[in-house]
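Problem: given the chain below (314 residues), write out its structure.
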Amino acid sequence: MKYSDFGLVNTREMFLNAIKGKYAIPAFNFYNMETLNAIMAAARDTDSPIILAVSESALKYMGANMLMGMISGLRLSPERSVALHLDHGSSFDACKNAVDLGFSSVMIDASKLPFEANIELTKQVVEYAHAHNVSVEAELGTLAGIEDETTFGTESSYTNPDDVIKFVNATNIDSLAIAIGTSHGAYKRKSDDETLRFDILDAVAKQLPSFPLVLHGASSIPEHLVKTINKFGGDITGARGISTDQLRRATEMNICKINVDSDSRLAFTAGVRQYFADNPSKFNPRDFLGAAINLIHQNCINEINNVMGSNNKI
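Solution.
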């Protein structure tokens, strides 16, 4: 099906508006009905454009029919400004499958390949996706950390600003994910003194003025969620995210999409752990999942308002 049949939009206009307005579009990953409903409620409550991000492993977990059934059930209209995005597509076939399902945006992540091989695979995806008016994101540089079985890395490498013009011109992508010191997972920094490489971001932005740039691995890892998890039986020590101040600064420099995954996972887990600690005799899934939904909803609203700055931007 076409993504327009689901009331979805691609990311081109929302990115253009975000660059002009110096804010970022939140790309929140989801994995089930509960996370999807929490994210969409936050988008509606803040009047924010939104990107619903799905990894290959999340797509496998939900199943294509269930996933697209949930998207259909949202009863979206283009005026709502919602995109459905494949996060970290690992191959042409993965991206093609997403386009054919009705995704309005795909990421081809060939960043671990040699530069020229990255270009060739990305070009192949762009050709197919653009024929269906689907926007394409690609990546230069690599991020360390673990998000799930299809999104992980043991080493990181910063984006080389000298490569970006050739890459964008050769591939005709719509947005570029860059590596400036973020990482996947909950352990993004070893100390609170670490900062992103804004010198690299500045150099890339000067090479690509007004071109949409993307940050992956940019969850803020809210301290109160980590403390709640640990208070009620968890063991997440040393978790540090990217500070709000640094993320807001990035949105002033052409970062118009910020991916958030770990924060929602933490909120879900904190909600469930606290619910069971406070209600040891309860066992109705609607109750403890409701607690998880509430915390994800609250966290998404906070990040839309205070990190992305995308509230009231539809």
